[in-house]
């Protein structure tokens, strides 16, 4: 099973985090990394394990980098039965009502199309002293051991 990591970012942090996750999950086999701006929703393959890394922008919206992928999901409505994915979101608890909402929007859409979210929904808080890549690496180790090991 290949691991496909998709990231949606506004300022680039999700891409950096996704790179770190790819390094960790590379120990479990073939791992590829894609910007959601350049990944066609129709290419989601239930034979692969997917990791979504998504930030939150504005008032709890998707970052610009995730919009084309999300729009593709909405327009094409692919049957994602059998697809498993894990999600790591980035946000800031200062925005209580919309904290990590970008990742939640993507997860809800994938689930509505038949995919299954597995593992803990990773949520980085930009207000914390923990660096996002450090939290993501620990999260990825747990995902790897639980679902890919």
Low-confidence stretches: none
Largest sheet: 6 strands, parallel
Q: What's the overall average pLDDT, rounded?
A: 97
Could you tell me how far the N terminus lies from the C terminus, measured between alpha carbons in angstroms?
A: 11 Å
- Bin the strand percentage: 15-25%
**Helix and strand succession?**
EHEEHEHEEH
Q: Give Rg in angstroms.
A: 14 Å
Q: Based on DSSP secondary structure assignment, what is the total number of beta strands?
A: 6
Counting DSSP H or I runs of 4 or more residues, the number of helices is 4
The coarse overall form would be globular
Structural class: alpha/beta
Percent in helix: 25-40%
Question: How would you explain this protein's 3D organization?
Answer:
Helices cover 35% and strands 21% of the residues. Strands 1, 2, 3, 4, 5 and 6 form a six-stranded parallel beta sheet that branches. The protein contains four helices and six strands; from the N terminus they run E-H-E-E-H-E-H-E-E-H. Helix 1 runs parallel beside helix 4 (132-148). By secondary structure, it is of the alpha/beta class. It is globular.
Summarize the structure.
Helix content is 35%, strand content 21%.
How are the elements arranged and paired?
Blueprint: E1 3-8, H1 13-25, E2 31-35, E3 49-55, H2 67-76, E4 84-91, H3 101-112, E5 116-117, E6 122-125, H4 132-148
Parallel strand pairs: 1-2, 1-3, 3-4, 4-5, 4-6
Helix pairs in contact: 1-4
């Amino acid at each position: 099973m290949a691991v496909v990591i998709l990231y949606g970012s506004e300022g680039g942090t999700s891409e950096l985090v996704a790179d770190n996750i790819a390094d960790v999950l590379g120990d479990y086999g073939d791992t590829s990394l894609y910007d959601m701006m350049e990944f066609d929703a129709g290419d989601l393959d239930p034979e692969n394990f997917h990791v979504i890394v998504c930030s939150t922008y504005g008032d709890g919206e998707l970052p610009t980098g995730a919009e084309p992928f999300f729009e593709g999901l909405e327009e094409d409505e692919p049957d994602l039965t059998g697809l498993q994915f894990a999600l790591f979101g980035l946000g800031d608890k200062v925005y209580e009502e919309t904290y990590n909402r970008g990742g939640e929007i993507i997860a809800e859409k994938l689930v509505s199309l038949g995919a299954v979210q597995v593992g803990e929904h990773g949520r980085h808080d930009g207000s914390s002293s923990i660096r996002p890549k450090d939290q993501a690496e620990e999260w990825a180790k747990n995902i790897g051991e639980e679902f890919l090991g």
